[in-house]
Protein backbone atom coordinates (compact mmCIF):
# COMPACT_ATOMS: atom_id res chain seq x y z
CA UNK A 1 0.00 0.00 0.00
CA UNK A 2 1.08 3.58 -0.70
CA UNK A 3 0.68 5.98 2.18
CA UNK A 4 0.50 9.71 1.37
CA UNK A 5 1.78 11.42 4.54
CA UNK A 6 0.96 14.98 5.63
CA UNK A 7 3.94 16.41 3.71
CA UNK A 8 2.20 15.19 0.57
CA UNK A 9 5.22 13.96 -1.40
CA UNK A 10 6.80 10.84 0.07
CA UNK A 11 5.21 7.58 -1.00
CA UNK A 12 4.96 8.59 -4.66
CA UNK A 13 7.82 7.23 -6.74
CA UNK A 14 8.67 5.80 -10.13
CA UNK A 15 7.77 2.26 -9.07
CA UNK A 16 4.26 3.36 -8.14
CA UNK A 17 3.89 5.05 -11.52
CA UNK A 18 5.02 1.89 -13.30
CA UNK A 19 2.43 -0.17 -11.42
CA UNK A 20 -0.36 2.30 -12.16
CA UNK A 21 0.51 2.36 -15.85
CA UNK A 22 0.70 -1.44 -16.06
CA UNK A 23 -2.66 -1.86 -14.35
CA UNK A 24 -4.63 0.86 -16.14
CA UNK A 25 -2.84 1.65 -19.41
CA UNK A 26 -0.98 -1.53 -20.39
CA UNK A 27 -0.23 -0.15 -23.86
CA UNK A 28 2.45 1.98 -22.20
CA UNK A 29 3.88 -0.76 -19.96
CA UNK A 30 7.64 -1.02 -20.25
CA UNK A 31 8.26 2.62 -21.10
CA UNK A 32 10.89 4.19 -18.84
CA UNK A 33 9.61 6.26 -15.93
CA UNK A 34 11.89 9.00 -14.59
CA UNK A 35 11.34 12.04 -12.34
CA UNK A 36 11.29 15.40 -14.10
CA UNK A 37 14.21 17.70 -13.46
CA UNK A 38 12.06 20.49 -12.01
CA UNK A 39 9.04 19.31 -10.02
CA UNK A 40 6.28 21.16 -8.19
CA UNK A 41 4.80 20.74 -4.72
CA UNK A 42 1.12 20.17 -5.50
CA UNK A 43 1.88 17.27 -7.84
CA UNK A 44 4.66 14.81 -8.56
CA UNK A 45 5.50 14.55 -12.26
CA UNK A 46 7.37 11.77 -14.09
CA UNK A 47 8.50 11.36 -17.68
CA UNK A 48 6.87 8.37 -19.36
CA UNK A 49 8.97 7.41 -22.33
CA UNK A 50 10.05 10.31 -24.52
CA UNK A 51 6.71 11.92 -25.27
CA UNK A 52 4.53 11.72 -22.14
CA UNK A 53 4.35 12.67 -18.48
CA UNK A 54 2.42 11.27 -15.54
CA UNK A 55 1.12 13.76 -12.99
CA UNK A 56 -0.06 12.70 -9.52
CA UNK A 57 -1.57 14.99 -6.83
CA UNK A 58 0.29 14.90 -3.54
CA UNK A 59 -2.71 15.61 -1.30
CA UNK A 60 -6.50 15.65 -1.38
CA UNK A 61 -6.63 19.43 -1.73
CA UNK A 62 -5.02 19.20 -5.17
CA UNK A 63 -7.33 16.48 -6.52
CA UNK A 64 -9.99 18.83 -8.01
CA UNK A 65 -7.38 20.07 -10.47
CA UNK A 66 -7.19 16.67 -12.16
CA UNK A 67 -10.76 16.58 -13.43
CA UNK A 68 -10.77 20.31 -14.11
CA UNK A 69 -7.68 20.19 -16.31
CA UNK A 70 -8.81 17.01 -18.07
CA UNK A 71 -12.13 18.62 -18.97
CA UNK A 72 -11.11 22.17 -19.79
CA UNK A 73 -7.58 22.19 -21.19
CA UNK A 74 -8.68 20.49 -24.45
CA UNK A 75 -11.36 23.18 -24.84
CA UNK A 76 -9.04 26.10 -24.12
CA UNK A 77 -6.00 24.97 -26.12
CA UNK A 78 -7.15 26.05 -29.58
CA UNK A 79 -7.78 29.63 -28.41
CA UNK A 80 -4.41 30.18 -26.76
CA UNK A 81 -1.28 31.56 -28.47
CA UNK A 82 1.15 29.02 -26.97
CA UNK A 83 0.98 25.35 -26.09
CA UNK A 84 -0.70 24.01 -22.94
CA UNK A 85 -0.62 20.42 -21.62
CA UNK A 86 -2.32 17.83 -23.82
CA UNK A 87 -4.38 15.35 -21.81
CA UNK A 88 -3.88 11.77 -23.04
CA UNK A 89 -5.57 9.77 -20.26
CA UNK A 90 -7.13 10.11 -16.83
CA UNK A 91 -6.12 7.48 -14.30
CA UNK A 92 -8.12 6.23 -11.34
CA UNK A 93 -7.02 5.49 -7.77
CA UNK A 94 -5.20 2.19 -7.56
CA UNK A 95 -2.14 0.27 -6.39
CA UNK A 96 -2.68 1.86 -2.98
CA UNK A 97 -2.60 5.38 -4.41
CA UNK A 98 -5.83 7.14 -3.34
CA UNK A 99 -6.30 9.88 -5.93
CA UNK A 100 -7.09 10.29 -9.64
CA UNK A 101 -4.11 11.19 -11.83
CA UNK A 102 -3.38 11.95 -15.47
CA UNK A 103 -1.13 11.20 -18.41
CA UNK A 104 -0.14 14.16 -20.58
CA UNK A 105 1.94 14.94 -23.61
CA UNK A 106 5.49 16.10 -22.97
CA UNK A 107 6.01 19.81 -23.65
CA UNK A 108 9.48 20.79 -24.77
CA UNK A 109 11.17 23.75 -23.16
CA UNK A 110 12.67 24.94 -19.90
CA UNK A 111 11.08 26.84 -17.06
CA UNK A 112 11.60 30.54 -17.60
CA UNK A 113 14.28 32.49 -15.78
CA UNK A 114 16.06 35.72 -16.77
CA UNK A 115 19.13 33.99 -18.16
CA UNK A 116 16.94 31.87 -20.47
CA UNK A 117 14.97 34.81 -21.90
CA UNK A 118 16.40 36.53 -24.95
CA UNK A 119 14.42 39.77 -24.62
CA UNK A 120 12.53 40.36 -21.36
CA UNK A 121 10.33 43.07 -22.84
CA UNK A 122 9.15 40.82 -25.68
CA UNK A 123 8.69 37.99 -23.20
CA UNK A 124 6.54 40.24 -20.98
CA UNK A 125 4.38 41.15 -23.97
CA UNK A 126 4.00 37.46 -24.86
CA UNK A 127 2.87 36.67 -21.31
CA UNK A 128 0.39 39.56 -21.43
CA UNK A 129 -0.93 38.29 -24.78
CA UNK A 130 -1.47 34.87 -23.20
CA UNK A 131 -3.36 36.39 -20.26
CA UNK A 132 -5.60 38.36 -22.62
CA UNK A 133 -6.22 35.35 -24.87
CA UNK A 134 -7.21 33.29 -21.84
CA UNK A 135 -9.62 36.02 -20.73
CA UNK A 136 -11.26 35.93 -24.17
CA UNK A 137 -12.00 32.19 -23.94
CA UNK A 138 -15.65 31.23 -23.47
CA UNK A 139 -16.27 31.17 -19.73
CA UNK A 140 -19.80 29.72 -19.88
CA UNK A 141 -19.99 26.69 -17.63
CA UNK A 142 -16.42 27.11 -16.46
CA UNK A 143 -15.38 26.32 -12.86
CA UNK A 144 -16.29 29.34 -10.76
CA UNK A 145 -13.46 30.54 -8.50
CA UNK A 146 -13.51 28.94 -5.07
CA UNK A 147 -11.92 26.18 -3.06
CA UNK A 148 -10.71 24.29 -6.16
CA UNK A 149 -8.68 27.36 -7.24
CA UNK A 150 -7.51 28.11 -3.69
CA UNK A 151 -9.73 31.18 -4.08
CA UNK A 152 -7.65 32.66 -6.89
CA UNK A 153 -10.18 34.50 -9.04
CA UNK A 154 -12.28 35.37 -5.99
CA UNK A 155 -11.86 38.45 -3.82
CA UNK A 156 -8.54 38.74 -1.98
CA UNK A 157 -10.77 39.37 1.05
CA UNK A 158 -10.83 35.59 1.50
CA UNK A 159 -7.29 35.97 2.88
CA UNK A 160 -8.00 39.06 4.98
CA UNK A 161 -7.59 37.37 8.36
CA UNK A 162 -4.38 35.66 7.26
CA UNK A 163 -2.94 38.88 5.85
CA UNK A 164 -3.69 40.83 9.00
CA UNK A 165 -2.09 38.10 11.13
CA UNK A 166 1.02 38.37 8.96
CA UNK A 167 1.04 42.14 9.35
CA UNK A 168 0.91 41.74 13.12
CA UNK A 169 3.75 39.19 13.11
CA UNK A 170 5.90 41.42 10.89
CA UNK A 171 5.16 44.71 12.67
CA UNK A 172 8.45 46.54 13.18
CA UNK A 173 10.27 44.38 10.63
CA UNK A 174 8.58 45.62 7.44
CA UNK A 175 6.65 48.80 6.66
CA UNK A 176 3.31 47.52 7.88
CA UNK A 177 1.67 50.95 7.65
CA UNK A 178 2.25 51.18 3.90
CA UNK A 179 1.48 47.49 3.47
CA UNK A 180 -1.85 47.95 5.24
CA UNK A 181 -2.69 50.79 2.85
CA UNK A 182 -2.07 48.50 -0.13
CA UNK A 183 -4.19 45.76 1.37
CA UNK A 184 -7.06 48.11 2.25
CA UNK A 185 -6.98 49.50 -1.29
CA UNK A 186 -7.18 45.97 -2.70
CA UNK A 187 -10.23 45.16 -0.60
CA UNK A 188 -11.92 48.44 -1.49
CA UNK A 189 -11.49 47.83 -5.23
CA UNK A 190 -14.32 45.31 -5.46
CA UNK A 191 -14.71 43.49 -8.75
CA UNK A 192 -18.07 43.68 -10.53
CA UNK A 193 -17.14 42.39 -13.99
CA UNK A 194 -18.30 39.36 -15.91
CA UNK A 195 -16.37 36.19 -14.98
CA UNK A 196 -13.46 35.42 -17.31
CA UNK A 197 -10.87 32.66 -17.39
CA UNK A 198 -7.80 33.07 -15.21
CA UNK A 199 -4.76 30.80 -14.80
CA UNK A 200 -4.19 31.51 -11.11
CA UNK A 201 -0.44 30.97 -11.00
CA UNK A 202 1.28 32.89 -13.79
CA UNK A 203 4.86 32.50 -12.56
CA UNK A 204 8.27 31.70 -13.96
CA UNK A 205 8.04 28.01 -13.09
CA UNK A 206 4.83 27.62 -15.10
CA UNK A 207 6.10 29.41 -18.21
CA UNK A 208 8.24 27.38 -20.61
CA UNK A 209 10.74 28.88 -23.02
CA UNK A 210 12.70 27.68 -26.03
CA UNK A 211 15.32 29.78 -27.80
CA UNK A 212 14.57 32.54 -25.34
CA UNK A 213 10.85 32.80 -26.21
CA UNK A 214 7.63 31.79 -24.47
CA UNK A 215 6.41 28.50 -25.94
CA UNK A 216 4.06 26.96 -23.37
CA UNK A 217 2.14 27.56 -20.15
CA UNK A 218 1.65 24.70 -17.71
CA UNK A 219 -0.10 23.91 -14.40
CA UNK A 220 -3.69 25.08 -14.65
CA UNK A 221 -4.52 23.58 -11.26
CA UNK A 222 -5.59 26.93 -9.81
CA UNK A 223 -7.44 28.06 -12.94
CA UNK A 224 -11.11 28.93 -13.17
CA UNK A 225 -13.50 31.72 -14.10
CA UNK A 226 -13.80 34.87 -12.08
CA UNK A 227 -11.67 37.96 -11.44
CA UNK A 228 -8.34 37.72 -13.34
CA UNK A 229 -6.48 40.13 -11.04
CA UNK A 230 -4.40 37.26 -9.67
CA UNK A 231 -2.83 36.79 -13.12
CA UNK A 232 -1.14 40.20 -12.97
CA UNK A 233 1.06 39.41 -9.97
CA UNK A 234 3.96 38.48 -12.25
CA UNK A 235 4.38 42.22 -12.85
CA UNK A 236 6.27 42.36 -9.55
CA UNK A 237 7.49 38.81 -9.04
CA UNK A 238 9.31 38.50 -12.38
CA UNK A 239 9.25 41.76 -14.32
CA UNK A 240 10.89 45.10 -13.67
CA UNK A 241 11.70 48.27 -15.56
CA UNK A 242 10.85 48.14 -19.27
CA UNK A 243 9.55 44.58 -18.99
CA UNK A 244 7.04 45.55 -16.32
CA UNK A 245 5.90 48.58 -18.27
CA UNK A 246 5.46 46.48 -21.42
CA UNK A 247 3.41 43.93 -19.49
CA UNK A 248 1.27 46.64 -17.89
CA UNK A 249 0.65 48.46 -21.17
CA UNK A 250 -0.13 45.30 -23.13
CA UNK A 251 -2.40 43.62 -20.62
CA UNK A 252 -4.25 46.86 -19.89
CA UNK A 253 -6.89 46.50 -17.12
CA UNK A 254 -8.38 49.22 -14.95
CA UNK A 255 -7.04 50.73 -11.72
CA UNK A 256 -9.19 48.48 -9.56
CA UNK A 257 -7.79 45.36 -11.24
CA UNK A 258 -4.25 46.52 -10.53
CA UNK A 259 -5.14 47.40 -6.92
CA UNK A 260 -6.47 43.87 -6.33
CA UNK A 261 -3.44 42.41 -8.05
CA UNK A 262 -1.14 44.33 -5.73
CA UNK A 263 -3.19 42.86 -2.89
CA UNK A 264 -2.58 39.31 -4.16
CA UNK A 265 1.16 39.96 -4.45
CA UNK A 266 1.25 41.57 -1.01
CA UNK A 267 -0.60 38.68 0.65
CA UNK A 268 1.84 36.10 -0.69
CA UNK A 269 4.94 38.16 0.10
CA UNK A 270 3.78 38.77 3.67
CA UNK A 271 2.82 35.13 4.16
CA UNK A 272 6.20 33.86 3.01
CA UNK A 273 8.07 36.49 5.02
CA UNK A 274 6.14 35.66 8.18
CA UNK A 275 7.23 32.04 7.83
CA UNK A 276 10.87 32.43 6.77
CA UNK A 277 12.16 35.84 7.79
CA UNK A 278 14.49 34.31 10.39
CA UNK A 279 15.15 30.95 8.77
CA UNK A 280 15.70 31.37 5.03
CA UNK A 281 17.70 34.43 4.10
CA UNK A 282 17.38 34.00 0.32
CA UNK A 283 13.64 33.41 0.32
CA UNK A 284 13.11 36.27 2.74
CA UNK A 285 15.14 38.60 0.51
CA UNK A 286 13.09 37.62 -2.53
CA UNK A 287 9.81 38.26 -0.70
CA UNK A 288 11.08 41.57 0.66
CA UNK A 289 11.93 42.62 -2.88
CA UNK A 290 8.40 41.82 -4.09
CA UNK A 291 6.95 43.67 -1.10
CA UNK A 292 9.08 46.76 -1.79
CA UNK A 293 8.12 46.75 -5.47
CA UNK A 294 4.42 46.47 -4.64
CA UNK A 295 4.59 49.31 -2.12
CA UNK A 296 6.39 51.53 -4.63
CA UNK A 297 3.87 50.64 -7.34
CA UNK A 298 0.98 51.55 -5.07
CA UNK A 299 2.50 54.96 -4.35
CA UNK A 300 3.06 55.55 -8.06
CA UNK A 301 -0.34 54.55 -9.38
CA UNK A 302 -2.87 54.62 -6.55
Structure explained in plain terms:
The chain is α+β, with helices and mostly antiparallel strands. The chain has 2 domains: 14-106, Phosphorylase Kinase, domain 1 (2-Layer Sandwich); 111-301, Aminoglycoside phosphotransferase (APH), C-terminal lobe (Aminoglycoside 3'-phosphotransferase, Chain: A, domain 2), CATH 3.90.1200. It has helices spanning 14-24, 64-76, 120-136, 160-170, 176-188, 234-237, 241-251, 255-276, 281-301, and strands at 33-35, 43-48, 52-57, 87-91, 101-105, 110-111, 196-198, 207-210, 213-217, 224-226. The protein has a 5-stranded antiparallel beta sheet, sandwiched between helices. A 3-stranded antiparallel beta sheet has the order 6-8-9, covered by helices on one side. It has a two-stranded antiparallel sheet with strand order 7-10. Helix 4 (160-170) crosses helix 8 (255-276), helix 5 packs across helix 8 and helix 8 (255-276) runs antiparallel to helix 9. The chain is globular and about 60 Å long. The relative contact order is 0.13.
